[in-house]
Amino acid sequence: MKEEGTYPKSSFIKLFDNKRTYFYEIIKEGTYPLTEQLHYTRNPKHPIPHNYVVKTQYGKAMYTVECSIEYVEKKPLYKICFGVNFSREVHSWETSTDAACKYYQEFNEMKEMEKNRNRNQSNKENKGKISGPLLFGLKLLSVERVRRTMSLDLKIRPFIDLGNSQKRRRILGLSQSVLDIVERERDNTFHPDDQVKLKQIKFEIDDDAYDINFGKVNKIEEIKKIEAVVKSMDKGHISREAYRSLARIEDLPREKAVCDVRQKINAEMKKKVPLTLVDLLQPTKFEPIREEPNITDSEIITNMLESIGKGGQRRITDILNYIIPLYIEKGILIPRQSTLHIRISGDGRNVGRKVKHVMVTMTLLNDLSGLQKPDNHYTLVLYPGAETYESLKNVLTPLISDLCILKEKGFNQIGGNQWPVELYFSSDWKFLAICLGMNAANAQYFCPWCDCNKNGINTTSKKINKSMDNIKVNYKQINGHIKEPLFHMIPLQNWVVDELHILLRITDRLWELMISDLRRETANEEIWKGKILSEMQRLNIPFQFWHEKNTNNLSYTSLMGPDKLKVLKEFDLFAVFQSITRAIQIRALWDQFNELYHLIQDKKTTGEFFRYKAKSWLDEFTAPSTGHPNRGNFVRGMYRIQDITPYIHVLCNHVAEFLEIHHKFGLAAFSCSAVEKKNHMQMGGIEIRENQQFWKC
């Protein structure tokens, strides 16, 4: 018989002579077992392969069958599937011809039944007998040649010596064998209704791990998985080398695929929200930072110092065009109905003892439920350097221009939607004062909102009596203001105090005053220090004291917000004070402040009620001594007017106003907690070079 085809380039082969024609599609060419296990056909002798599948068409009616051979316990099993969707099957342990005869018998019975059901229809019968080797395609010499070459390689050459294509064939062959075993044994182990699918197998060859996945690859899910990996690497600052090590241990996408997706994301973000670099006017020498550093990692510090002089910025309009469709989809923004309530915030962080990391962000107050998430605060400006008026003015010039246009004309979204805009500002005191062009908080005229000075810091009747329009035009004539405000387009009543820093800074002052009380009560420093350390240990709060080098100044651990709140509520003052009376006084003062802090966070709190509670607390804070110092009825007063801080002034005078003005959002909406978290997250990720910047949104 003559063979016609281009196997292995094409899997279709024609075998014919003057009487018969067979068409084959080689699905799996299979391999030959070891010589001592190999079986052959009868005359002429052809080796019988293992794990072999072929689809055969024959006869004038082009009948189609699927034939397969698999060695089971060193003996070939011949199978023939036929009928609709190959739903019927015969098999034989004897020969391919025996299997063909069984098929021929069942096939004719099936045709006879169809003939009886459809007597009026013509039917072509399969008159002759069928050759097993021909039906199974065992006489196809082109397939036999390729199979012999593969089998010779498998028997002789070690895996390490194979080429990539040969390695792939060998691995896939083993994987297919495992899949076939699972498919064959599935019905013997599980109920027919159980949906059992082999998803993956893992094995090692010479210490190299291989993972084989079965089924079609869901490209969308695969891309989502890789994008999640990129996000995790960015947030965790995981290097490519570290990821390669992890990928060798766990089932993770290849590093190249991750790198490709990262580049795609960067290219897309660069197109939608372009990042531009600005040169900053920075000093060549830096004054040392005397406060406790927020970051002490030497690699990050070195990276930041190398990046001095350049800052990154993004247009607020580009970010709005990017995020507004997402907020519309969530139902947070409604076109032609909603106003964009844009809050600007800023934060500086100490990196080591030499430089700061400064960030300016924006968020939409419309999304009240998402304001505490750092990802919902979008970075506008990011630079390593001084937190000064000059640096900020230099880098904020484009943003200031954009905000003026947004205030005047609103935001014209790409696509046609027009959005009215209301602007707000919130940050810690230092950043807010810099942006307002004011003196520091310890100046004689310190308040951003009223004309209060240090001599009247204990008053509780002050209200917001400044206006941004007046400050912009006449800042030189207004006490405390020394420079033009940067964000002059934002009304002063929309410069909202940060409730987080009210907690942090007033708690700091209460703690300092408590330490002063202990010093006055107990001369031996080690005694009361030991009591405090024991109490901190009970609260599971890491804490320690130390003396600054070459000085007698006592320093102690600076606590984070949650720990400060825990100390405020749960610290046992009776365990550290000898005087029960003093412990009762301080505990009452702390409890009242804790109540005030929770009232600030409650949107239902009215300004009138809060003003009353704040005034009562300040009266307790400055309560005078009673009785005669030399008699038993003497009760020492609390603290002096000089102990009142600017944040206490704001708490007792302006928080009530802000609660009334911004009751729609609540003061918790202006918390800078999420901004500080975002700044901390980005600190290790900024990497500015001459022509590139690694930026995290």
Helix content: 40-55%
Number of helices: 20
First-last Cα distance:
70 Å
Largest sheet: 7 strands, antiparallel
Strand content: 15-25%
Oligomer: single chain
The mean pLDDT is 85
Low-pLDDT stretches are 121-127, 283-290, 299-307, 684-697
* Rg: 40 Å
Structure description:
It contains 20 helices and 22 strands. Helix 13 runs antiparallel to helix 16 and helix 17 runs antiparallel to helix 19 (655-661). The chain has 697 residues and is an alpha+beta fold. Helix content is 41%, strand content 18%. The chain starts with a strand and ends with a strand. It folds into 5 domains: 2-149, Double Stranded RNA Binding Domain (2-Layer Sandwich); 159-213, no CATH class; 219-264, no CATH class; 275-437, no CATH class; 500-670, no CATH class.
List the helices and strands and how they pair.
Elements: E1 2-5, E2 12-16, E3 21-28, E4 52-58, E5 63-72, E6 75-82, E7 88-92, H1 96-117, H2 132-135, H3 141-156, H4 164-189, E8 200-205, E9 208-213, H5 219-236, H6 240-249, H7 255-272, E10 275-279, H8 298-306, E11 310-314, H9 316-329, E12 340-351, E13 355-364, E14 378-384, H10 389-409, E15 411-412, E16 418-419, E17 421-427, H11 429-436, H12 468-474, E18 495-497, H13 499-521, H14 525-538, E19 545-547, E20 554-556, H15 561-570, H16 580-601, H17 607-621, H18 646-653, H19 655-661, H20 673-683, E21 687-688, E22 693-694
Parallel strand pairs: 12-17, 17-18
Antiparallel strand pairs: 1-2, 2-3, 3-4, 4-5, 5-6, 6-7, 8-9, 10-11, 11-14, 12-13, 13-14, 15-16, 19-20, 21-22
